[in-house]
Amino acid sequence: MSSAIAEQNALSPTLPLVGTVLAVQANYYWVRLDTSSTTSQQNDASLTTLLCTRRTRLKKIGVAVMVGDRVEIEEPDWGGGRGAIAEVLPRESELDRPPIANANQIVLVFAVADPPLDPYQLTRFLIKAESTELDVCLCLNKSDLVSEEEIEEWRDCLAEWGYQPLFISIFSNTGLDELYQQLNNRITVLAGPSGVGKSSIINYLIPNVKVRVGEVSGKLSRGRHTTRHVELFELPGGGFLADTPGFNQPDLDCSPEELALYFPEIQKRLEVASCQFSDCLHRDEPNCAVRGDWERYDYYLELLEEAILYQEELHRQADPDAVLKLKTKGKGKSKYEPRLEAKKYRRTSRKTQQQKLQELYEEDTDI
Ligand SMILES: Nc1nc2c(ncn2[C@@H]2O[C@H](COP(=O)(O)OP(=O)(O)OP(=O)(O)O)[C@@H](O)[C@H]2O)c(=O)[nH]1
Ligand SMILES: [Zn+2]
Q1: Within 36-175, where are the H helices?
Q2: Engineered SS bond to 86: which of 12, 74, 268, 357, CB 3.0-4.6 Å?
Q3: Centre of ligand 1 from the C-alpha of residue 195, in Å
Q4: CA angle, 229 as apex, 176 and 196 as ends, to 5°?
């Protein structure tokens, strides 16, 4: 144990070491200790990031540890960079896909050009982001590729939708201070389609990110480290960024009633007026306060159809008696199975998702 930390622990032996889980690999957890848990001399990342196991007690009571979790560490071995997670502190938020605890906001990255900004695709991503109930910040990259006028047009259009986007450019170094302020001291999930510049943003904000990844591999010796896992990257000024491969397929999996919650335009209308029916879906019901001539109304209707089909499919799966088809198996055995109409509405169950994740971990780690 380093003398500074030994001294601190001797002075306050009951003070727990607290940190944030940066990555999970098989049964190991990378934990970045809070700087307040260590001393100012211990700010070197290699000394404040410990490779931890989870106490058997936590396993027994079924407490899982997620990336983003705040945890208490026992028995740190400073020389070997090891420790054990003794406690998981209560979560402020919990995302399912990607699995991240305590995220504060989603920064949704799109490009104004290359690839072209498609309002319908953007809407789908926004709905998905809003459905997490985290704060949503829209960040439009590659503003160097379009004229000032075009940027103003987008600004006006998106203001109508209820968003005040940050226009940035990694290439011409525009808007990056504002982006930095937005990320400071928070846990941010960075999401968006391929090719819009998410990796460029991470590399700009955290220039030494590859160094840190290298360190992780070094400590695990035989373990390979890949970005396929959810992982938090520490921002130099405080806060963490999560890059999320899992977020990049925005399936619409909300109920028809929920959908309206994720359109700021609808919420704005419902603040000043009410529909006649409390369960109005804002389609063709009489005296609807939402239906009307606003830009994304057609998108709303289209997504509503999708949400209705999705819900019907869920009901069919939950209640196989509703619609059954007789499936004949070998040796004359028959079995009733719920009828699945369209292939695209077949979803992987939570359990299957978890299994896939586990397989990924096992595939990626040789420990
Ligand atoms: N003109 C312009 N090009 C940019 C800017 N930022 C990134 N690019 C380019 O856009 C392309 C895609 O950037 P990436 O950072 O790989 O995008 P990504 O979102 O991480 O893409 P995936 O890895 O596929 O998810 C690269 O060729 C970048 O050089 C920018 O501000 N302006
Ligand atoms: Zn209505």
Answers
A1: 45-48, 56-60, 119-130, 148-161
A2: 74
A3: 5
A4: 35
Is 256:262 a contact under the CB 8 Å cutoff? no
Q: How far apart are CA 294 and CA 296, in angstroms?
A: 6
Evaluate: CB of 146 within 6 angstroms of ligand 1: no
Cα pseudo-dihedral 217, 222, 228, 233, rounded to 10: -20
Task: Kindly state if the Cβ of 42 falls inside 6 Å of ligand 1.
Answer: no
Find out whether the beta carbon of 198 lies less than 6 Å from any atom of ligand 1. yes
Asked if residue 107 has its Cβ within 6 Å of ligand 1, the reply is no
Report the CATH number that the domain containing residue 314 is assigned in CATH: 1.10.40
Is 93 assigned a ligand-binding role in the annotation? no
Report field, pTM of the whole predicted structure over 0.90? no
Read off the tokens for 282: 């804002």
Q: Is 232 in the pocket of ligand 1 (CB under 6 A)?
A: no
- Structure-block tokens of residue 364: 């990626």
Q: What is the band of 207 on the pLDDT scale with cuts at 50, 70, 90?
A: confident
Find the ligand nearest to 200 CA.
1
C-beta neighbour count of 66 within 10 angstroms = 19
Cβ–Cβ < 8 Å for 134, 189: yes
In a domain, 27, yes or no: yes
The residue nearest atom 12 of ligand 1, judged by CA position, is 195
Which residues form the domain of 306? 256-321
What DSSP character marks residue 331?
Answer: G
Q: 143 labelled as ligand-binding? A: yes
Which is nearest to 308 in space by CA: 345, 343, 340?
345
Kindly report the average pLDDT of the chain as a whole number.
81
Paired tokens of 194: 């391929």
- Verify that 102 and 180 share a domain, yes or no: yes
Atom of ligand 1 at shortest range from CA of 145 = 1
